[in-house]
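Following up on my earlier thread - several people asked me to post the actual chain instead of describing it. Fair enough. Here it is, all 367 residues.
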Amino acid sequence: MAGGAGERFWPLSRKKFPKQLLPLGTNNNSILEDSINRAATVIPYEDIFVITNELLVNTMRNTLKMLPKENIIPEPAKRNTAPCLTLAIAYILARYNNLSSKDISIAILTADQNIYPIEKFTLTLDAALSYAENNNSLVTIGIIPTRPETGYGYIETAEQCSSDSTALQFNKVLQFREKPNKETAEQFIKTGRFTWNSGMFFWRCDTFINNLIKYMPELGNKIENLKELLLNKTKIISDSLDQPVKNIFNEFPSISIDYALMEKADNVVVCKAIFNWDDIGSWDSLYRTKKADENGNITNGKTSIIDSSNSIVMNYCSKNLVVAGINLKDLVVVATDDAILVCPKSEVQNIKKTVEDIKNNFGEEHI
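Reply from S.P.:
Thanks for posting it. Predicted structure:
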């Protein structure tokens, strides 16, 4: 899934070149390229699909050279993750029409996470897919918390289901919990029962369809319709899907897969990750992916910062411009050719509000 706008990385992330395409990955790769290459350790490139918004389809096709161009699926409208996955499953069923839904298993991965080492991710991915294939379960990956993070959702786990030969642990999911305040997050961690919600899911197609029909019929009952409309069209390189498909999709409610399905189903299992994981969600996450100097500062481009500490100062201007600061403490400063952001590090989660305000006042020129 790669349709997000990455607004918390504004002003570097833009509608036409969002966070998932920024060179925030390994060896100057985009984080989306890293995600695809990790998946390819288990799944052949020709069986990897990217679903994104129509505005980004051509950019994705030109950037992701390792994938067949027809494997970039244009999402007709912004409807959150449940409709996104409903369309993706229908598209895949149409592509592999010679197989039954019971014979197709799916790994739902995200485009904006830093994961290492790859070998441990591969073991986890393979185990999660195998569990989903051999059980009537909706499987997710849970990350063992390393801090009382308030920016992530949590999963409360119940009894252990089984362990496989790779020593990976699977537990029944008791409940999903929304992003907590710091005190609640600290309590979650103390119990030892909670993991972070990674947003990665694994299931057989028939398991997903049957559960979606049960818990969100307005989506589940449309999968067969969408599949029929997409038959013989999934190898055509197009900027958008046919109007009948769009008509169905546009009627879908905007709802996340967590709300639509995962929080309601009684057959959800979490596989506890054995790899290191970080969600590259906002500017302060750079502290977990880049090396700070001796004063705790992270910089990029032409910058001059004096008597400053624990600040992020990023200059992405193509012009010959220097960004200078004196006595900066716990600040984020980001400069591009047409916008400058200045905010406390503690407020980076609210950059989305700034983006909305700019859009309302100045239109989409700077978005």
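The longest helix spans residues 118-134. That should answer part of your original question.
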